[in-house]
Prior knowledge:
Layout: E1 2-6, H1 17-22, E2 28-31, H2 42-52, E3 59-64, H3 68-75, E4 82-88, H4 98-111, H5 118-126, H6 132-143, H7 147-159, H8 163-166, E5 173-178, H9 186-193, E6 199-204, E7 213-217
Parallel strand pairs: 1-2, 1-3, 3-4, 4-5, 5-6
Antiparallel strand pairs: 6-7
Helix pairs in contact: 2-3, 4-7, 5-6
Amino acid sequence: MRLVLLPGLDGTAKLFTPFIKALPEHIDVVTIAFPTDRDLSYSELQRHLGFACPCVEPFVLLAESFSTPLAVQFAATAPVNMCGVVLCAGFVASPVRGWRRVMGELFAPLLVRLPLPGFAVRLWLLGRSAPANLVAAVRAAVSSVRPRVLSARLKAVLTCDVRLNLGKIAVPILYITAKNDRLIEAICVRDVQQSGAQIDVVWVEGPSSNGSLTKSRK
Protein backbone atom coordinates (compact mmCIF):
# COMPACT_ATOMS: atom_id res chain seq x y z
CA MET A 1 0.00 0.00 0.00
CA ARG A 2 1.26 3.45 -0.93
CA LEU A 3 0.48 6.72 0.78
CA VAL A 4 0.45 9.64 -1.65
CA LEU A 5 0.87 13.06 -0.01
CA LEU A 6 -0.41 16.36 -1.42
CA PRO A 7 1.02 19.52 0.20
CA GLY A 8 -0.45 22.71 1.59
CA LEU A 9 -0.35 26.22 0.16
CA ASP A 10 3.42 26.29 -0.38
CA GLY A 11 3.14 23.22 -2.61
CA THR A 12 6.73 22.15 -1.98
CA ALA A 13 5.95 19.03 0.11
CA LYS A 14 9.03 19.84 2.22
CA LEU A 15 6.96 20.21 5.38
CA PHE A 16 5.98 16.52 5.21
CA THR A 17 9.49 15.46 6.28
CA PRO A 18 8.78 15.08 10.05
CA PHE A 19 5.52 13.24 9.30
CA ILE A 20 7.24 10.82 6.92
CA LYS A 21 9.98 10.11 9.47
CA ALA A 22 7.33 9.21 12.05
CA LEU A 23 5.60 6.66 9.78
CA PRO A 24 6.33 2.92 10.01
CA GLU A 25 9.02 1.82 7.57
CA HIS A 26 6.69 -0.56 5.72
CA ILE A 27 4.57 2.33 4.40
CA ASP A 28 5.66 3.38 0.94
CA VAL A 29 5.33 7.17 0.76
CA VAL A 30 5.12 9.26 -2.40
CA THR A 31 5.11 13.06 -2.16
CA ILE A 32 3.81 15.18 -5.01
CA ALA A 33 5.02 18.78 -5.21
CA PHE A 34 3.56 21.59 -7.29
CA PRO A 35 5.48 24.05 -9.47
CA THR A 36 6.77 27.04 -7.50
CA ASP A 37 6.98 29.32 -10.54
CA ARG A 38 3.65 28.71 -12.31
CA ASP A 39 0.22 29.77 -11.06
CA LEU A 40 -1.91 26.74 -11.92
CA SER A 41 -5.63 26.47 -11.24
CA TYR A 42 -7.14 23.51 -9.39
CA SER A 43 -8.15 22.01 -12.75
CA GLU A 44 -4.61 22.37 -14.06
CA LEU A 45 -3.19 20.89 -10.85
CA GLN A 46 -5.60 17.98 -11.25
CA ARG A 47 -4.02 17.18 -14.61
CA HIS A 48 -0.59 17.50 -12.99
CA LEU A 49 -1.70 15.06 -10.28
CA GLY A 50 -3.08 12.65 -12.86
CA PHE A 51 0.36 12.38 -14.49
CA ALA A 52 2.31 12.26 -11.21
CA CYS A 53 0.12 9.95 -9.14
CA PRO A 54 1.35 6.31 -9.11
CA CYS A 55 -1.79 4.32 -9.95
CA VAL A 56 -0.15 0.98 -10.77
CA GLU A 57 -0.78 -0.38 -7.26
CA PRO A 58 -3.23 0.34 -4.41
CA PHE A 59 -2.78 3.73 -2.76
CA VAL A 60 -4.38 6.13 -0.30
CA LEU A 61 -4.37 9.85 -1.07
CA LEU A 62 -3.67 12.23 1.83
CA ALA A 63 -4.12 15.95 1.22
CA GLU A 64 -3.73 18.87 3.56
CA SER A 65 -5.09 22.40 3.52
CA PHE A 66 -4.80 23.89 0.02
CA SER A 67 -4.74 20.45 -1.63
CA THR A 68 -7.97 19.12 -0.15
CA PRO A 69 -10.26 20.47 -2.93
CA LEU A 70 -7.78 19.06 -5.45
CA ALA A 71 -7.91 15.64 -3.77
CA VAL A 72 -11.71 15.70 -3.85
CA GLN A 73 -11.77 16.60 -7.54
CA PHE A 74 -9.27 13.88 -8.35
CA ALA A 75 -10.93 11.18 -6.24
CA ALA A 76 -14.31 11.93 -7.83
CA THR A 77 -12.89 10.69 -11.16
CA ALA A 78 -12.44 7.21 -9.62
CA PRO A 79 -8.69 6.77 -10.20
CA VAL A 80 -7.53 3.21 -10.70
CA ASN A 81 -6.31 1.51 -7.49
CA MET A 82 -7.33 4.35 -5.16
CA CYS A 83 -8.41 2.80 -1.86
CA GLY A 84 -9.16 5.84 0.29
CA VAL A 85 -8.86 9.59 0.81
CA VAL A 86 -7.65 11.52 3.86
CA LEU A 87 -8.46 15.23 4.07
CA CYS A 88 -6.47 17.03 6.75
CA ALA A 89 -7.29 20.58 7.92
CA GLY A 90 -9.20 20.99 4.72
CA PHE A 91 -12.28 22.42 3.03
CA VAL A 92 -14.56 21.67 0.10
CA ALA A 93 -15.68 25.28 -0.40
CA SER A 94 -14.08 28.60 0.45
CA PRO A 95 -13.17 28.61 4.16
CA VAL A 96 -13.75 32.37 4.20
CA ARG A 97 -17.19 33.76 3.46
CA GLY A 98 -18.86 37.15 3.13
CA TRP A 99 -16.91 40.40 3.30
CA ARG A 100 -13.75 38.64 4.50
CA ARG A 101 -13.66 36.65 1.29
CA VAL A 102 -13.93 39.84 -0.79
CA MET A 103 -11.18 41.49 1.24
CA GLY A 104 -9.01 38.39 0.88
CA GLU A 105 -9.29 38.44 -2.90
CA LEU A 106 -8.43 42.13 -2.99
CA PHE A 107 -5.43 42.02 -0.69
CA ALA A 108 -3.98 38.59 -1.51
CA PRO A 109 -1.45 39.98 -4.05
CA LEU A 110 -0.14 42.43 -1.45
CA LEU A 111 -0.03 40.07 1.50
CA VAL A 112 2.03 37.40 -0.24
CA ARG A 113 4.73 39.93 -1.13
CA LEU A 114 5.46 40.61 2.53
CA PRO A 115 7.83 38.34 4.50
CA LEU A 116 5.92 35.86 6.63
CA PRO A 117 6.60 36.84 10.27
CA GLY A 118 7.34 34.14 12.82
CA PHE A 119 4.59 35.39 15.14
CA ALA A 120 2.03 35.00 12.35
CA VAL A 121 3.13 31.40 11.76
CA ARG A 122 2.66 30.64 15.45
CA LEU A 123 -0.63 32.53 15.74
CA TRP A 124 -2.38 31.13 12.67
CA LEU A 125 -0.67 27.86 11.82
CA LEU A 126 1.43 26.13 14.46
CA GLY A 127 0.48 27.41 17.90
CA ARG A 128 2.37 29.64 20.29
CA SER A 129 4.56 26.80 21.62
CA ALA A 130 5.81 25.70 18.18
CA PRO A 131 9.58 25.09 18.12
CA ALA A 132 11.77 27.60 16.31
CA ASN A 133 13.01 25.05 13.77
CA LEU A 134 9.46 24.23 12.68
CA VAL A 135 8.56 27.91 12.35
CA ALA A 136 11.71 28.44 10.29
CA ALA A 137 10.81 25.49 8.05
CA VAL A 138 7.36 26.91 7.33
CA ARG A 139 8.76 30.35 6.55
CA ALA A 140 11.40 28.85 4.25
CA ALA A 141 8.86 26.74 2.37
CA VAL A 142 6.53 29.70 1.79
CA SER A 143 9.35 32.04 0.76
CA SER A 144 10.54 29.54 -1.87
CA VAL A 145 7.35 30.08 -3.89
CA ARG A 146 6.93 33.11 -6.14
CA PRO A 147 4.47 35.69 -4.76
CA ARG A 148 2.25 35.61 -7.84
CA VAL A 149 1.91 31.83 -7.44
CA LEU A 150 0.93 32.17 -3.78
CA SER A 151 -1.53 34.90 -4.70
CA ALA A 152 -3.15 32.71 -7.36
CA ARG A 153 -3.43 29.82 -4.90
CA LEU A 154 -5.04 32.02 -2.27
CA LYS A 155 -7.59 33.21 -4.82
CA ALA A 156 -8.25 29.59 -5.83
CA VAL A 157 -8.93 28.75 -2.18
CA LEU A 158 -11.31 31.71 -1.81
CA THR A 159 -13.35 30.74 -4.87
CA CYS A 160 -13.31 26.93 -4.75
CA ASP A 161 -16.41 24.76 -4.36
CA VAL A 162 -16.13 20.99 -4.81
CA ARG A 163 -19.01 19.95 -2.55
CA LEU A 164 -20.80 18.14 -5.38
CA ASN A 165 -17.62 16.21 -6.19
CA LEU A 166 -17.39 14.95 -2.63
CA GLY A 167 -20.58 12.95 -3.03
CA LYS A 168 -19.16 11.19 -6.11
CA ILE A 169 -16.24 9.58 -4.26
CA ALA A 170 -16.74 5.84 -3.93
CA VAL A 171 -13.83 5.03 -1.58
CA PRO A 172 -13.73 5.64 2.20
CA ILE A 173 -13.02 9.23 3.27
CA LEU A 174 -11.35 10.34 6.50
CA TYR A 175 -11.61 14.02 7.43
CA ILE A 176 -9.22 15.28 10.13
CA THR A 177 -9.82 18.69 11.68
CA ALA A 178 -8.38 20.50 14.68
CA LYS A 179 -10.35 22.09 17.48
CA ASN A 180 -9.99 25.87 17.66
CA ASP A 181 -8.33 26.01 14.25
CA ARG A 182 -7.85 29.70 13.41
CA LEU A 183 -8.07 29.15 9.64
CA ILE A 184 -10.46 26.22 9.13
CA GLU A 185 -13.69 27.19 10.85
CA ALA A 186 -16.73 25.13 11.82
CA ILE A 187 -18.47 25.99 8.54
CA CYS A 188 -15.86 23.90 6.70
CA VAL A 189 -16.72 20.88 8.82
CA ARG A 190 -20.44 21.42 8.20
CA ASP A 191 -19.81 21.58 4.46
CA VAL A 192 -18.21 18.15 4.64
CA GLN A 193 -20.82 16.63 6.94
CA GLN A 194 -23.73 17.91 4.85
CA SER A 195 -22.36 16.54 1.59
CA GLY A 196 -24.25 13.26 1.88
CA ALA A 197 -21.04 11.24 1.55
CA GLN A 198 -20.03 8.60 4.09
CA ILE A 199 -17.18 10.28 5.92
CA ASP A 200 -15.35 9.57 9.16
CA VAL A 201 -14.70 12.89 10.91
CA VAL A 202 -11.88 12.99 13.46
CA TRP A 203 -11.34 15.99 15.73
CA VAL A 204 -7.85 16.46 17.13
CA GLU A 205 -6.69 18.97 19.69
CA GLY A 206 -4.79 22.05 18.52
CA PRO A 207 -1.00 22.46 18.81
CA SER A 208 -1.14 23.87 22.34
CA SER A 209 -3.41 21.18 23.77
CA ASN A 210 -2.97 17.61 24.97
CA GLY A 211 -3.21 15.77 21.65
CA SER A 212 -6.30 13.66 22.38
CA LEU A 213 -8.89 13.05 19.68
CA THR A 214 -12.54 12.31 19.26
CA LYS A 215 -14.31 10.67 16.36
CA SER A 216 -17.76 11.00 14.85
CA ARG A 217 -19.39 9.16 11.97
CA LYS A 218 -21.32 10.83 9.16
